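pinging the channel bc i need a second pair of eyes. not urgent but kinda urgent?? the chain im working w is below, pasted from the shared doc
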Amino acid sequence: MRIVLFSVLMCLACRGAGPAASAPPAPSAAGPPADGTLYRRLGGYDAIAAVVDDFMGRWHQDSILGPFFAHLDTDGMRYVRQMVVDQLCAAAGGPCFYVGLDMATAHAEMEITPAVWNVAVQHLLATFDAFGIPTRERRELDAILRAVRAEIVGRRETGDGRRETGDVRREAGRTVTLALAQLAADADPAVNLDKALDAMRRAHALGAGLIAFPELAVTRFFPQHEGYGGARALAEPIPGPTTQRIAAAARALGLVTVFNLYEQAGDRCYDSSPVFDADGTLLGVTRMLHITEYACFHEQQYYDQGDTGAPVYDTAVGKIAVAICYDRHYPEYMRALALGGAEVVIIPQAGALDEWPEGLFEAEVRTAAFQNGYVAALCNRVGVEEKLTFAGESFVVDAAGAVVARGKRLEEDLLVCTVDLDANQASPAKTLFWRDRRADLYQSWFEI
């Protein structure tokens, strides 16, 4: 038996439950479960029922999920709730018994989209947070969620009557679901690394194939201080202890991963983004080229100038490039990524609250995407630190320059968004601007 969570709730609510539905079998309390079962570790029947009540309440109030329940009266909702509790208990190794429709049959005509699935899982993860479900149990639940998703999202019928599984939006183009882990930094790097790994698991549960992190993802933003003597101790080689764990998670979850940390390479230190493919392979490291120095951003005191150029990585989800924070201000660099064939440009960022004039935070990235014909995804850090407050508000821009997703302001967030990479080719940049370029002139202009 498997935990249904979203899927059984939806199939019962929309296909089987209602005022005329017969009552579900009463839960059996006979025989205590073994101590090691997930059922026992979650707290037993009453605890699981409380979890179900919480996430069903969240779904019922959601503007996207609420319509699935609109036709149910009180008895119908009670029936759905009892069936979900019983199946969750049974799947967790408890004494309950559930008999119902298999996933393929239950979702044959529902056409659950990835967007609907993602909304449902976000509410479920919020419930996990509210109840303080421990890491081990969350991992087990996340693994079951991933298995269920493969069966119910985007199911469609082929001409010969067979059932296929997959993202139905792929018919419109070559898509990638990306996640931006907008995180605040604790003083303890180990805590931050655990948060990053948890974000990777959440992103995978939500169907992401690519995840990106903010600038200096496992440390506080030490360049806010002048002459900070402890900075060198925070630097790590790549590969090193942190990146080895990130690589292992990328491999286990099948996630293309763009990380960022303070890198030590010999006697030099860099602001660096290692890029891992979906099998955990380290494809390369992008080092920030342009290093600034002004109040609360004393980066020239800590970072050497990058020496890796403007690489573009051929990953499992497409051609990915990285523009680390300050590099995004340089049109030459952003154009170089496009010339290298980038389809998605990830921008790890440490952007403070009200750092730039109104609107420019998004405007320059929108312009870069519009002029170059690629998707741009900026992942900002968030939270109050010693001298700076980081704003969050991570965002994704399509190749037409439109913001298609935006993260929360001043709060941690996991922003998940699906983009169509094939649409890049229909962008103004690819259909107009690049067609009419005068590359024969440009070299002489920039010999300075």
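so The radius of gyration is 24 Å. and The longest helix spans residues 44-61. — does that match what u expected or am i reading it wrong
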